[in-house]
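Weekly sync, protein design subgroup
Attendees: M.S., D.O., the rotation student, P.L. (late)

Item 1: inverse folding check
M.S. brought a backbone from last month's batch and wanted to see whether the design step gives back something sensible before we order anything. D.O. pointed out we never logged the input encoding, so this time it goes straight into the notes. Structure tokens as presented (62 positions):
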């Protein structure tokens, strides 16, 4: 099964469907919102991996 392998034709069809559904003016707003979401997710993941100095102090006292 080649479900994981998306070809050029499939990508073009997906882009055309998105253009038809949302229109050209709405797409930049959607991409900006997605970018902010990804950035906040990455910041959250960095916060989990690298605790702040205040969090380190409370962990050391335990």
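Designed sequence read out in the meeting:
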């Amino acid at each position: 099964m080649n479900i994981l392998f998306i070809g050029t034709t499939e990508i073009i069809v997906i882009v055309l469907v998105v253009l038809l559904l949302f229109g050209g003016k709405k797409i930049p707003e959607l991409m900006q919102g997605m970018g902010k979401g990804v950035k906040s997710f990455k910041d959250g993941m960095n916060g989990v991996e690298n605790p702040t100095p205040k969090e380190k102090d409370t962990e050391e006292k335990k």
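Discussion: Residues 27-49 form the longest helix (23 residues). The chain has one domain: 8-61.
Action: P.L. to compare against the previous round before Friday.
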